[in-house]
Amino acid sequence: MAQNSTSAVADRSAESEGLVVQKNLVKVEGLWKLYGENQSLATDAAGASITKQEALEKHRTVIALKDVSFSVDRAETFVVMGLSGSGKSTLVRCLIRLIEPTAGRILVENDDILQYDESQLVQFRRRKVAMVFQHFGLLPHRRVIENAGWGLEIQGISKEERYERTQTALDLVGLQGWEHAYPRELSGGMQQRVGLARALAQDPEIMLMDEPFSGLDPLIRRSMQGELVKLQRDLKKTIVFITHDLHEALRLGDRIAIMRDGQVVQIGTPEDIVLNPADEYVEEFTRDINREEVLTASSVMDKAEIVLLNSQTPKEALEILLSRSLDSGCVVNDKGECVGSVTVDEVARASKAGSTDLASAMNGSTKPVSKDTSFGQLIPLSLASDRPIPVVDDDGKLVGEVHREKLAAGLGSRNHINNVD
Amino acid sequence: MDYPLPTEKQGISFSQLQNSALFVFGLGAGVVAVIVFAAAAIWGSQMEFPIDAGRSVGARIDAVVDWTNINGDWLFSAIKIVVIKILITMEDALLWMPWPGLVVLVTLISLRLGGTFVAAFSFLGMMGMGLLGLWESAMETLALVFTAVTLSIGIALPVGVFAARNNRFDAVLRPILDGMQTMPSFVYLVPAIMFFSLGNVPAVMATIVYAVPPAIRLTNLGIRQVSPEIVEAARSFGTTPMQLLTKVQIPMAMPTIMAGINQTTMMALAMVVIASLVGAGGLGEDVNRALGRQEPGAAAIGGMSIVIMAIVIDRLTQGVVKKRQDALRGT
Ligand SMILES: Nc1ncnc2c1ncn2[C@@H]1O[C@H](COP(=O)(O)OP(=O)(O)OP(=O)(O)O)[C@@H](O)[C@H]1O
Ligand SMILES: [Mg+2]
User: Is B8's C-beta closer than 6 angstroms to any atom of ligand 1?
Assistant: First the structure.
């Protein structure tokens, strides 16, 4: 989750050492798109301070994008969110040059795609990137398999290979058995699966998705989101996902960019957006968000104050805890994996009983939780437990502990909370 | 690769311009009307125009046509050879099959595209033409019409496609097509005779000029009507403009293009009698001859044959259009 700071570090080192491999795949710098009479606003000094309203009234120019900059890491799901007309579609179309930006740079693996000539652009669209559209954009007179194989067909790939690769993509999105149906015969959700399969069949590094689930009814939308999350776990594509629905953004995004009037007003992790909204506009979005679902253990955990080794005896543990005047401590094994926690009472009882095994003391120990555990799951655990809950990373290594008071604070005001980065 | 979006035009200033232009125009029209009424009151109906330019403008056009005739001779000869070749091939093809073969074939196609009623109509109509001794005339007319329509399609597709992709060309083309369609078709006969002398060739050429506009118009319209979302999606996958045209736009525009071809065919049939004035054979010649000899019966029979032919062709092409539409709807 915390890719912000790490990516910045990786960037800097990559640049200074001139390394080819770098973490961010797409980098957008100072991107403008204007519609109308006064195209020079993008490069003028005047443009920098002008509002969308002023530009429209005084210059008869629509500012669709205003000085947008961000970067997207490899395998990251980057969500762009904003109200209608905030420039989301314009932005994502610029990334594949369906719309030509007025000014700025778009670097994909350090190549400025805005400098591409026509044939380079065609190659870029065929190899690197694929897009999924809100209204699907399927060809009505072609069967599902021919629609999903579109990208391969226009590259001149043989029918056999095309069908094989397309079939794989159709299987991935759960459309086996529908290969020979026509789009009209499918429900909206299934049509969008075809759109998704068409993009996946290209095996692109980057997937652009412009409100792909907005046209679907809520239940289907939720299940499609779930499937996308599952797919992404295996495929690890770099995704730029457009939505106007914060729930969707929070569910899918590793990071979220919030747009207003063509400008990016905040970029951050889901927790960031919910806990530290940059301004009232963002706060308005987050108002009806259920914090229990968004916040995770990692956003409220503290560093473990003490780490006990399971090779220590209860007596040694008791001394350590008392010397620091702590009520409890987490216990790890020799690999650094957390095995549980003990309270002062427990170790005192065990050492009185003459036990030499710390593990035997951990009677009421709570099982460690993953750092991605949501508040919703943490709260009952925390209430049932008489001690802080250990938090572990994906490898089972101890990364912190959650105190009950911190949980309560996280649900209420947004002060007293860790900045996740 | 990127075609200008209509919405990227500067719509605001344009509408204002339109408003002020309208105002000036209205004012001017008012002033002119006052002057005209005043003049009419003074001179009455005796009033003459200050000059009579009719003759000299006509002579100018004559000169242009003459010049073209002399200097474009090689071109007209080439066109003539090609058209004759197509005509003969068509006619040979139609007359190659003995009449029962063609009757059965057309009836079967009608059955497939139009259903039993159309099939029955086709069968009876064709038998009628044969029994009335008009078979050969009908085939000659059919060859003439098919040749004109084939050449019209050859012209209409590229022109229509280009007009769909280029707004400026479209703006210039539109009034020209209007003119071609409203101009009395007789007018085309004069230069047609001069360039191609008498016979079937000038008839075909005049027919094309008269009949090609709907095919161009509807090709243009059909391609413009393809949903921009589908075009955008196709382009996003690295579709080249040519692939876009052949694999997306034309297939999706097909029903509309076919409707244009249907109209073009109907208009070509409407030209059959007029074209016989420059020496075209077939049913038109029969009707024309009946006119000269004052034989209303023969004229009626020839005319009816043309109508029957038109109905059959219309139902068949509409059947094709409908099949394409169903295919596009994916049912
Ligand atoms: N072709 C165009 N001509 C003029 N203005 C345009 C054009 N396309 C978009 N705009 C303007 O650019 C701005 C951004 O539009 P965009 O479609 O990117 O918004 P969006 O965030 O995708 O909205 P939505 O949620 O409704 O899809 C809007 O103010 C819109 O009016
Ligand atoms: Mg949009």
Answer: yes
